[in-house]
């Protein structure tokens, strides 16, 4: 009893550990499930923060990836060329698999760590709000001012993001995942059966002008790679997701399923859409098959975009919420302070995301900027440091495996630093060019952003 009381008074204290059989390569440790290092004891009348199963984790992981990222893949292939685009997508996805695995390993060894991702996901939520506004514009035929649609998108996202636990958001993730997959495959099938893209010349012979290898400028190429990083950089979210799993040891199982499925979808959608559309591919990709299919696909995808933005707003809000109320009884109880703090966090995150979506209203440029400025910085460098932090003590007995992993971790840190600097430069160049272009999108505009 005395030991349990000490643990309750000090959430940073290490939790009891018992050894168990391994599952899918996970760590052979089981940290105490009820005295969670992040949320503490769960009150009977409070929210259950430990109610996400491994299949629910798959849905959350896939929804943090498949939504906004997949919509930019065909455009990336157009910039880089088909072969370099596919190759780089596989490389970036492979790095994402390793960095995500390290998050799961590190979280099990250090259960008190909750997240490093608040700023990143607020920016990503901004792109989600922008995506919803594009969808509303497409479905309604630009029924009202785009600035109004952005505000409506923010309100909808705030409402869903205020659901307090990931366990209850799981159903939103499943619904959104199905909708976005159906939407993108509607476009894929449509571009495959049409004789030419709707935006291609209609009164002359036409052949798909896809490129096996393209010749982009440095800024264009590095911005395209940043978009791939954005599509594959759900890694920072996994700290928060594993914190609410019923059995964190099943993290790797969920990761393998979600990562393989997401990468397969990216390849199919990217290759087929770009192959049939060539230079007339749209970004977001849902606009590639003409006005009618565009309206249909955006209508189907709308719940998926809302689901993505819900998760993107929920994660940073939960991070701030936990930081404010950690070591307090209000964290897990339905008190007035609990609700005021939680809704203030979700409202604040939504407000910042709304400003980002309105201030950078070009989907491609916003995706590239987020992937470069925050995606690589939070998904690459920290995971390399995590491996070194946990394994540097074994350097005196180094083996070939240890040496290779150490070199790989250093490489991840270096390449992440390079992409942060170079990718941000490329994204900023793209934003400036878009703002200066005749008819280009402007901040807080009423112009239709779905064209």
From TrEMBL:
- Position of the signal peptide: none
Q: Where is the Amino acid transporter transmembrane domain?
A: 51-104, 123-428
The compartments listed are: Membrane
The membrane topology of this protein is:
Multi-pass membrane protein
Keywords, A to Z, come to: Membrane, Transmembrane, Transmembrane helix
| InterPro entries listed in its UniProt record | AA_transpt_TM
The transmembrane segments are 86-108, 120-140, 146-164, 171-193, 221-243, 255-276, 296-315, 336-356, 362-380, 401-432
Q: Which PANTHER family match?
A: AMINO ACID TRANSPORTER, AMINO ACID TRANSPORTER (EUROFUNG)
Q: Tell me which family the UniProt entry assigns to this protein.
A: Belongs to the amino acid/polyamine transporter 2 family.
Q: What is this protein called?
A: Transmembrane amino acid transporter protein-domain-containing protein
In its UniProt entry, the species of origin is given as Aspergillus cavernicola
């Amino acid at each position: 009893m005395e030991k349990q009381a000490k643990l309750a008074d000090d959430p940073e204290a290490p939790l009891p550990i018992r050894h168990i059989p391994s599952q899918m390569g996970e760590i052979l440790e089981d940290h105490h499930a009820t005295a969670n290092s992040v949320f503490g004891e769960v009150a009977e009348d409070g929210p259950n923060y430990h109610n996400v199963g491994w299949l629910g984790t798959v849905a959350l992981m896939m929804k943090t990836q498949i939504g906004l990222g997949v919509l930019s893949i065909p455009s990336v292939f157009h910039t880089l060329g088909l072969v370099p685009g596919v190759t780089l997508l596989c490389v970036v996805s492979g790095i994402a698999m390793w960095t995500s695995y390290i998050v799961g390993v590190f979280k099990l060894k250090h259960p008190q760590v909750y997240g490093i991702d608040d700023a990143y996901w607020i920016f990503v939520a901004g792109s989600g709000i922008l995506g919803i506004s594009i969808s509303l514009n497409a479905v309604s035929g630009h029924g009202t001012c785009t600035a109004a649609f952005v505000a409506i998108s923010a309100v909808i996202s705030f409402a869903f993001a205020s659901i307090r636990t990931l366990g209850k958001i799981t159903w939103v993730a499943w619904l959104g995942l199905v909708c976005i997959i159906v939407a993108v495959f509607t476009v894929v099938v449509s571009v495959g059966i049409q004789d030419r893209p709707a935006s291609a010349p209609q009164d002359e012979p036409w052949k798909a002008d896809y490129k096996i290898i393209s010749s982009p400028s440095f800024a264009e190429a590095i911005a395209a790679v940043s978009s791939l990083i954005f599509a594959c950089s759900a890694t920072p979210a996994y700290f928060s997701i594993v914190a609410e799993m019923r059995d964190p040891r099943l993290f790797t199982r969920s990761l393998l399923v979600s990562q393989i499925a997401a990468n397969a979808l990216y390849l199919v959608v990217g290759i087929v859409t770009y192959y049939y559309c060539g230079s007339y591919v749209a970004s977001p990709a849902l606009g590639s098959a003409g006005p009618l299919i565009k309206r249909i696909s955006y209508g189907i995808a709308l719940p998926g975009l809302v689901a993505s933005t819900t998760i993107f707003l929920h994660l940073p809000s939960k991070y701030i919420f936990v930081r404010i109320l950690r070591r307090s009884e209000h964290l897990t109880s339905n008190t007035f302070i609990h609700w005021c703090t939680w809704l203030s966090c979700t409202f604040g995150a939504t407000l910042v995301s709304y400003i980002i979506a309105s201030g950078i209203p070009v989907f491609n440029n916003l995706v590239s900027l987020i992937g470069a400025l925050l995606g690589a910085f939070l998904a690459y460098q920290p995971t390399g440091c995590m491996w070194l932090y946990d394994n540097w003590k074994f350097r005196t007995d180094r083996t070939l495996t240890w040496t290779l992993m150490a070199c790989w971790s250093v490489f991840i840190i270096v390449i992440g630093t390079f992409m942060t600097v170079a990718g941000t430069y490329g994204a900023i160049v793209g934003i400036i060019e878009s703002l200066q272009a005749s008819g280009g999108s402007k901040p807080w505009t009423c112009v239709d952003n779905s064209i």
